[in-house]
Amino acid sequence: MENNNVSREAHRKRKSKESETSQQREARLARERERKRQKKMQETSEEREVHMSRERDRKQNEREMETNEQYEERLNYQRHFREQIKQQNLSRIIEELDPIIDTQGNCKLKGLTKIEEMLIAQVFPVMSVYRLRGGQLGYRGNVINFLQDVREFTTRLPRHPSSLDILIVCRQSGDLTSFRDFNVRRAKISRALYWLKANN
């Protein structure tokens, strides 16, 4: 009796699908997609693993049973699908390119000194840097990156020297002009921070 009821229900659903309009079909498909999405979200990791295993087995069985024509048709479909994805990605990238160009055109990060860049960076590296005889810079040992909390100093510039995360050690020299103080431009950093907030 139950099988008879199931077949009647399946027959009724099939008839309903055949007589539906395109709008009804779209609405039904949207409901089914949402139902499947909700079901996936409620799955436990074990249920998901079982579900994925069954799906892999089903696809494997289908591929083992397919004829040469079906195999060629599947490969052609996959090639066509990949080409469509490439075209869609290319179109999307081209559409997104204009805002990127506009943003970079009036970028407030240009012209920052190294010290100013280090001041607003969210990550700061710890490393030993040496100036070589030819004037080039070199480093030795490990480089470690730490997160830097930039919220503290955005309300108060310049920072107190005790809170700075940089230590510059210079060799003693008779030429006092070879060393210089590092200056930080408050207005320049403020504009850079506002620009970063608006564009990220």
UniProtKB/TrEMBL annotation:
Residue ranges under compositional bias (Basic and acidic residues)? 17-70
Enumerate the InterPro entries for this protein: DUF6570
User: What residue stretch is flagged as signal peptide?
Assistant: none
What domain of life is recorded for the organism?
Eukaryota
* Pfam families registered for this protein in UniProt: DUF6570
Question: Residue ranges of the DUF6570 domain?
Answer: 109-200
What segment(s) does the record annotate as region Disordered? 1-70
Q: What is this protein called?
A: 16881_t:CDS:1
